[in-house]
């Protein structure tokens, strides 16, 4: 009989176990919320189970494992968190809600913030003949851009003839060349990227190659002038002392 009562008590306690759930706006899919920059995401956490309708359970929110500060009236029974406006740093941020007295009773949700590359407009670039040319395009986006294309005067750049090097680290697309020549490198460059979600973006660079200027070594020149001035000053002082001695001798 005691064994039966103990089993019944265990079943009753199991039925009373309270977990938590998170509701979101916009709705999540598989624990992930798809959203964009400058939008608002609302999260609501509440206990669930047989006592879901009435409970005095205290709730705790974490953002990437760090506790979120909540007002006292936003902890008991149900608790909400609002992310507004959504920024770059919110991408892949995970919000977790759990019971204050039982951290194993928890639920989590992750933000996937999408944004296009900030690539537009034009820029004027002036480079001296025989110097190095470096052009940068901001290609940072989520999802990442699928392609980066460089053109010169409407045609795809000739990497071999123009001695160009192309690089892409996921944040910046770069076109560079050393020892540029006016006949090969002057013109209008275009950086074009394709986003699988947001489409095509471009930026133009008007590159002008100028005559090479003769650069004077400024610091050695200043040092030379200082030495000459000090030498002249010492010579004047020496001559002045000689003059004074001679003047005294003449008076005597």
From TrEMBL:
Domain of life: Eukaryota
GO molecular function: cell adhesion molecule binding
Gene Ontology BP, a term: cell-cell adhesion
UniProt-annotated location(s): Membrane
SMART domains noted in UniProt: IG (SM00409)
Annotated transmembrane regions: 218-238
Domain Ig-like per the UniProt entry, residue ranges: 26-110, 117-210
Cited InterPro entries: Cell_adhesion_signaling, Ig-like_dom, Ig-like_dom_sf, Ig-like_fold, Ig_sub
GO cellular component terms, semicolon-separated: cell-cell junction; plasma membrane
Signal sequence interval, chain numbering: 1-19
One family name in Pfam for this protein: Ig_2
Protein topology in the membrane: Single-pass type I membrane protein
UniProt keywords, alphabetically: Disulfide bond, Glycoprotein, Immunoglobulin domain, Membrane, Signal, Transmembrane, Transmembrane helix
Matching PANTHER family: IRREGULAR CHIASM C-ROUGHEST PROTEIN-RELATED, NEPHRIN
Protein name as annotated: Transmembrane and immunoglobulin domain containing 1
Biological source species: Cynoglossus semilaevis (Tongue sole)
Taxonomic classification: Eukaryota, Metazoa, Chordata, Craniata, Vertebrata
């Amino acid at each position: 009989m005691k064994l039966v009562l103990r089993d019944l008590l265990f079943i009753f306690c199991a039925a009373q176990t309270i977990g938590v759930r998170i509701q979101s706006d916009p709705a999540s899919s598989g624990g992930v919320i798809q959203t964009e920059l400058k939008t608002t995401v609302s999260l609501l956490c509440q206990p669930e189970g047989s006592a879901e309708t009435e409970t005095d359970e205290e709730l705790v929110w974490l953002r990437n494992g760090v506790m979120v500060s909540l007002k006292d009236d936003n902890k008991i029974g149900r608790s909400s968190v609002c992310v507004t406006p959504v920024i770059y740093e919110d991408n892949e941020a995970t919000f977790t809600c759990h019971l204050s007295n039982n951290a194993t009773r928890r639920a989590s949700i992750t933000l996937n913030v999408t944004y296009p590359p900030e690539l537009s407009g034009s820029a004027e670039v002036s480079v001296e003949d025989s110097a190095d040319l470096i052009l940068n395009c901001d290609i940072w986006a989520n999802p990442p851009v699928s392609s980066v294309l460089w053109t010169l005067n409407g045609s795809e750049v000739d990497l071999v003839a123009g001695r160009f090097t192309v690089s892409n680290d996921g944040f910046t697309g770069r076109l560079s060349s050393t020892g540029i020549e006016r006949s090969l490198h002057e013109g209008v460059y275009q950086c074009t990227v394709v986003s699988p979600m947001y489409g095509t973006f471009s930026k133009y660079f008007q590159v002008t190659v100028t005559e090479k200027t003769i650069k004077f070594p400024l610091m050695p020149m200043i040092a030379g002038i200082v030495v000459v001035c000090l030498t002249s000053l010492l010579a004047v002082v020496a001559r002045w002392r000689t003059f004074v001695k001679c003047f005294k001798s003449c008076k005597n």
